[in-house]
Amino acid sequence: MELADVTTISVLGAGNMGHGIAEVSALAGYDVTLRDINEELVQKGYEQIEWSLDKLVEKDQLSDEEADAARERITPVVDMEDAVAEADVIIEAVPEVMDIKRDVYSEVDEYAPDHAIFATNTSSLSITELSEATDRPERFCGMHFFNPPVRMQLVEVIAGDHTSEETLAVVEELAESMDKTPVRVHKDSPGFIVNRVLIPLLNEAAWLVEEGTATIGEVDATTKFDMGLPMGAFELADQVGIDVSYHVLDYMHETLGDAYRPCPLLAEKVETEQVGKKAGEGFYKYD
Ligand code: CAA
């Protein structure tokens, strides 16, 4: 398959990342189905896309016509067969839990056209292991966007042990067609490049607060203004989702060892469901 054969993209999962990936795909001119497990979740994702498109128009980064065209290209669906039956590329952004993702893949495999490429937006999990839940491991790779997808330039394209060169080339070109910069990750290693560097930073920031070395405000002021990050470490954890950060860390701890032991402060936030911007509260409160 070549990029020219790609006209329809199915995005599975309408959450924080899924809705953004659907938006970016529609803005690039692809027909998109956005799927989640119930009407309420899929509708919430669609409303977030509408909010984002309006924001881009308000800031003169998009015309009204471009926003309308993108909106019209997106079809929200709940039924899995409807979501993937016509898809050339399926980008999966369901929760960061191996068993959930593998279950989704075994269902999708049944309904997706034979030629379709499966691209997972996993933040850390093994591409090889996920690909083995399908009958097409050679047409399976990682396509990892960053939050918020509509603003972040980078996409990691990750090869699993079975991924074909043709699949990687199509997915890299697909990212470029979305005005993104793909970076190939040659080895299927937990956290890939960005999260291997970023998530321990968020964890260390949490340990500093946990052990009483600094306050959240002091860590954020230092990481933002003095180290030059675009957001403070805790602001970034809220943006990414503390639950996502925790899942990634937990997996890195399990696969790479004790250096990645999650700070209890993160676990507490997950337990109390104060997981960041999307929940209205994380380390900070949001309207
Ligand atoms: N769509 C449209 N507008 C959006 C938006 C979206 N999805 N998200 C935020 N905005 C808007 C905000 O509402 C705000 O609008 P107002 O000014 O009206 O309040 C505006 O964008 C802010 O944009 P600015 O350009 O003024 O602000 P900025 O220069 O700070 O840029 C940013 C914002 C691009 C998010 C920047 O802060 C940034 O780069 N932050 C770091 C984000 C990051 O590192 N993400 C990766 C995390 S790792 C990850 O995601 C991977 C994983 O697997 C865990």
TrEMBL record:
Transmembrane regions: none
All copies of domain 3-hydroxyacyl-CoA dehydrogenase C-terminal, residue ranges: 191-286
GO molecular function: enoyl-CoA hydratase activity; long-chain (3S)-3-hydroxyacyl-CoA dehydrogenase (NAD+) activity; NAD+ binding
Domain spans labelled 3-hydroxyacyl-CoA dehydrogenase NAD binding: 8-188
Keywords, alphabetical: Fatty acid metabolism, Lipid metabolism, Lyase, Multifunctional enzyme, NAD, Oxidoreductase
Origin superkingdom: Archaea
Residues annotated as signal peptide: none
GO biological process terms, semicolon-separated: fatty acid beta-oxidation
Annotated family: In the N-terminal section; belongs to the enoyl-CoA hydratase/isomerase family.
Protein name: enoyl-CoA hydratase
Organism for this UniProt entry: Halohasta litchfieldiae
Span covered, complete protein: 1 to 287 of 655
